[in-house]
Amino acid sequence: QAIGGVVNVITRQPTERLAINARAEGGWRDTGQAFANVSGKVGPVSASAGGGYYTTDGVSSYFAGSERDGFRNYGANASVGIEVTDAISVDLRGFYSDGRTEIDGFPAPTFAFGDTREYGKTEQWVGYGGLNVALFDNRLRNRVGYSYTDTDRRNIDPDGFTRETFNGSGRNERIEYQGSLDLARGTFATFGAEREVSKLRTSSFGTDTTGRARLFSVYGQLAVTPLAGLTATAGVRHDDHNVFGGATTFSASGAYALTTGTTLRGSYSEGFKAPTLFQLQSEFGNVALDPERSRGWDAGVAQSALGGALEASATWFHRTSFDLIAFISCPAQTGICTNRPFGTYDNVARARSQGLELALTLRPVEAFTLAAAYTYLDAENRARGTANFGRDLARRPGHSVTVEPSARPNGRR
């Protein structure tokens, strides 16, 4: 989960020799990104460290505004792996992010939404420690891990009556176990348990709010390959929330790869998501929120041709959500908008999202790849008897297009 933007920093797997990787990119709106990483391995110890920077001038958060609202982020990562024995290893990881997001607000004297010099700052630390143990000739693989996330946010209005308009911090601790067992040739099971505790403290214009939530989950999944090219999975998960109770969800998927280079695939899944502490108890919060629930399916086909030089795929997806949590504006101080002048969260009783994903990848030569993707999304409010029935859901683009050329001189990326 992320607030205010994230730069994706990937830690490369260390090898026996020293490896250095660097990348720089530039784009529209004075967008730039630079990243570097160094990794290596000596005996049973491997290590990796990297850092990156991203910046963009952006566009105005206020639709009719002329002032650009930019974003910048510094990121760093490090990892250490220790192979204690052939069957036991230790994994340590750390991530750091520092971001600044320019925003718009409600300036005096009209306090109507418009261009302002406001900005938000977010600092995040993430740490992870894991122990991996393989038993019974590697047939049973076990992982025990602990992760800690510390997030601090501040909103600053240089021209406001109060310079600091928001101050918040969040802590998340998670303990998890995951096991993977080879039951027979072509059949294996994955199972595990997780316990997560979240804490929140927010302050807006001097008023402090605190919150705490606990989530315990268990899950299991069975994967089988009954014949060459065919893989099927089935899973079940139970979540128990200290406020919203328990929920059991199911999932299933299948894929069949034909000898003609065609792959057929499909899946069904259910979802459960409790409201976050921010959605419940911040200055935008609504303590009357219900958890989100969903069920969805997708079906698709992929085709490979010309020895892998051409790959094309098409996938249709459909998802129905119940009590979808959405942010709403508050033009009047009534109902759930009481004491929420800047907006709040509410449940959409029923929503539907469906669409089509198309992808095409061309590799005319080994050193060059051209990838393109298009998504059509129809996201609609289906809560009958409400004023928004039949309207599009906010902040869901109906059409998305991505084109990515990639050159690898001498076969290297």
What does this structure look like?
- The chain is 1% helix and 67% strand.
- It has an 18-stranded antiparallel β-sheet.
- The chain is built from one helix and 18 strands.
- With 413 residues, the chain is mostly beta strands.
- The protein has a single domain, classed as Maltoporin, Chain A, CATH 2.40.170.20.
CATH homology superfamily: TonB-dependent receptor, beta-barrel domain
Report the CATH C-level class.
Mainly Beta
What integer is the average pLDDT? 90
The 3D shape can be described as globular
| Radius of gyration, taken over Cα atoms and rounded to an integer in Å | 24 Å
Sheet with most strands = 18 strands, antiparallel
Counted by DSSP, the helix tally is: 1
**Model regions low in confidence, pLDDT < 50 over at least 5 residues:** 1-12
H/E element sequence: EEEEEEEEEEEEEHEEEEE
In the CATH scheme, what's the topology name?
Maltoporin, Chain A
**Percentage of residues assigned to helices:** under 10%
Q: End-to-end distance, in Å?
A: 29 Å
Proportion of strand residues: over 45%
Number of strands: 18
Going by CATH, the architecture would be: Beta Barrel
Counting helices, strands and paired strands, the structural category is mainly beta
Number of domains: 1
